Amino acid sequence: MDATLTMAQRREEGNLVLEGVPEVIPQNIIDRFKQYQNTRFAAFRDWTPDGKGILIGSRFADVSQVHRVDMPGGARHQLTFFDEPVRGAAVPDDENLKGFLFRKDLGGSEQFQLFYYDMLNGESTMLSDGENQFGSGIWANKGSRYVYRSNKRNGKDYDVYLADLNAPGKDKMIFEGEGAWYPFGWCNDDSHILMGNYVSATNSKFYVLNIESGDYYQVNPSDEEIAYGGAIFNKTDDGLFFISDENEQFTKLRYYDLESKKQTLLTGNLDWNVEEIELSKDGSKLAFTANEGGINTLYIMDTETLSYSKLEGVPKGQVYGLSFHPDGNKLAMTVNSSQYPSDVFVYDFNSKESVRWTYSEVGGLNTSVFSDPEIIEFETFDEVDGKKRKIPAFYYKPPGDGPFPVLVNIHGGPESQHAPYFNPFFQYILQELNIAILAPNVRGSSGYGKEYIKLDNGFKREDSVKDIGGLLDWIENNPELDASKIAVGGGSYGGYMVYASMIMFGDRIKCGVSSVGISNFVTFLKNTKSYRRDLRRVEYGDERDPEMNAFLEKISPTNNAKKLTQPIYIVQGANDPRVPLSEAEQMLEKVKSNGQDVWYLMAKDEGHGFRKKANRDYYLTTYLMFLEKHLLEK
After folding, report:
1. What is the pTM of this model?
2. Which superfamily does CATH assign the domain made up of 3-22+365-632 to?
3. SS3 letters across 530-592
4. What is the CB-side half-sphere exposure of residue 293 using CA atoms within 13 A?
5. How many CB atoms lie within 10 A of CB 199?
6. pLDDT tens digits for 443-497?
7. Which of 148, 189, 348, 586 is deepest in the core (most CB within 10 A)?
8. Nearest alpha carbon to residue 273 among 417, 395, 377
9. How many CB atoms lie within 10 A of CB 357?
10. Cα separation, 39 vs 367, whole angstroms
11. The domain 222-359: what is its CATH number?
């Protein structure tokens, strides 16, 4: 393809670079989608310094910022006003400090910087160097000290640093790491911290580090591959509550005695992943969530008896961001479901009731009619114990009678998991376009045991693509679905799955939308940021090995692009540190030579996904236009 012709086909609209996308979006799509675009959310960040209110992440304008809410149902008072989204808001326990730590990057680059916001004067101060990546930012239990991680030493490996807000410029490296290391908690007397070393989704380790001497030791040392989740010191600092999948398919809650070095399994009867833990300040109560087939259930444990039960009165949905009030009698959380957006609830242990603190706008929509998915299972190509393996999926059904066209939406990761959450874009597709949505958790997804998550590693990569073939069979055998009208969509690894599914099942899929998708595993591994490269090699294989290199080249979409002849929409952020812009550009050039309708959208001020409302609105509106043209038109 002539480079001059390629550039001539391109146009720019503000920060967006476009190719093939129609210049005019039909007014009926703009008008119908407007309400769905104006839904909001609220996510718990921390309690205010006086303990009377809460800090939340929410969006009033273009991107998420930090707001203060002083009472249940109270007004949201915006505190930060940046052009980029703000991550987190952590408040120190120091009577002389009335503020919070937060993180922010530039244009989706993920070069996060640490900032401190002073609530007394409304000023934000950058605490990091503005050049390298900084993360964590965890306050000591008392005072102005905090720990963070950064790759500023060499741009690749993460070290752990100790800093003091009252001593700027005197940060001290307290641990030099190789690979992905991070701090995630303090002991009660602030003499030691917990830090983790992430190797892969099924292999990690964690350690206790003395911040003064630099001495450290591994907790529960083992030669086995073990995946660890959260961990937290008990009140007396002689033991730890932690999460791991040691000798189990699922991650379980355990207790580890630091003196005897013995552990006790606490949730052996829960055959689901325990995901988040939080301990009350007095150490008497421990809250934790279990991912039960994609829905979070909240439990509370008495740390003296180690007995636990479901916490009744908490709305059903995705429950996360747990945080006990300093008095130990209240537990804040964010709750989200397919029928309402994220909002903050506070459970009161005295009244045994959940109090809703935020009421997020839903654009005037009647969300009670929104589709709540059912869990289905479909058979795939291989067998387990002499029977066809079954793959779980969430089935979102539109109102009315079929047969419905279908959008197969494939999550990224690949170790992620689709779970029902509030998605106004999904609901528009369901309610307004009468397209059914199937969201499979193909092999390699988390939430279904550690063997399941390994089923797509290395040379097994295309087995997950074959799972989509099983889903296409299920659609074909379901009379309320129209197997002649199937689209695929997905982001990141899900974007690769879009390419690969359209190549492998080209006669069964009408069109696809790939966002920030991997198009060639070899070039992806060479060009992804150096601090991510070794982590991704564990999952995808090491491209430096000749046999693996040949396999990755063989299955990569760029080398099979001649088979991708259906209409496709390719979407990318220019600053993506994970899946670089080159992955989209090279796939675009390959598929254009096939002669089909190809759309391309690139945002100059985005990274791995679109976070700015104006960009996201344009992307999703044109996504709908693409579906109307290529899936629905006869």
Report:
1. 0.93
2. Alpha/Beta hydrolase fold, catalytic domain (3.40.50.1820)
3. HHHHHHHHHHHCCCCCHHHHHHHHHHCHHHHHHHCCCCEEEEEECCCCCCCHHHHHHHHHHHH
4. 10
5. 15
6. 999 999 999 999 999 999 999 999 999 999 999 999 999 999 999 999 999 999 9
7. 148
8. 417
9. 21
10. 11
11. 2.120.10.30
What is the mean pLDDT of the segment spanning 430-452? 96
Q: What is the DSSP string of 423-460?
A: -HHHHHHHHTT--EEEEE--TT-SSS-HHHHTTTSGGG
Q: Are 222 and 240 in contact (CB under 8 A)?
A: no
Name the nearest CA neighbour of 228 among 267, 208, 262, 198.
Answer: 198
Specify burial of residue 546 (Cβ count, 10 A radius: 0-12, 13-18, 19+).
Answer: exposed
Instruction: Decide: 358 and 406 in contact? Cβ < 8 Å.
Output: no
Token pair of 24 as six digits: 């005019």
Domain boundaries, the chain: 3-22+365-632, 222-359
Tell me the backbone φ, ψ of residue 538, rounded to 5 degrees.
Answer: -60, -40
Close Cβ partners of 121 (under 8 Å, ≥ 6 residues apart): none
Three-state secondary structure call for residue 629 = helix
The proportion of the chain whose per-residue pLDDT surpasses 70, expressed as a percent, equals 99
**Angle between helices 27-37 and 613-627 in degrees, nearest 10:** 130
Q: pLDDT tens for residues 70-86? A: 999 999 999 999 999 99
pLDDT band at 3 (very low <50, low <70, confident <90, very high): very low
pLDDT score recorded for residue 564: 98
In b/e form, how buried is each residue of 602-626, taking b as 16+ CB within 10 angstroms?
bbbbbbbbbbbebbbbbbbbbbbbb
- Burial class (CB within 10 angstroms; exposed 0-12, middle 13-18, buried 19+) of 630: buried
* Residue range 337-366, pLDDT digits in tens: 888 899 999 999 999 999 999 999 988 888
> DSSP 3-state assignment of 277?
strand
Other CB atoms closer than 10 Å to residue 530's CB: what's the count?
Answer: 13
Residues 603, 581: Cα–Cα separation, whole Å:
10
Among all chains, which residue has been given the structure tokens 């509030």? 422
Q: Which helix (H) or strand (E) holds 139?
A: strand 134-139
What is the four-CA torsion angle of 546, 551, 553, 554, rounded to 10 degrees? 140
Residue listed under structure tokens 């008392």: 142
> 106-121: per-residue pLDDT in tens?
999 999 999 999 999 9
Distance (Å, whole) CA 630 – CA 433: 13
Give residue 293's pLDDT: 87
Mean pLDDT calculated for residue range 296-311: 96
Beta strands 387-396 and 180-186, pairing class? unpaired
In this prediction, residues 37-66 reach a mean pLDDT of 94
Query: 3-22+365-632 with 222-359: one CATH topology?
Result: no
What SS3 class is residue 614?
A: helix
The single-letter DSSP state of residue 369 is G
Q: Angle between the 424-431 and 27-37 helix axes, to the nearest 10 degrees?
A: 130
Pick from 56, 52, 76: nearest CA to 66: 56
Distance CA 81, CA 94 (A): 25
Give residue-wise pLDDT tens across range 247-256. 999 999 999 9
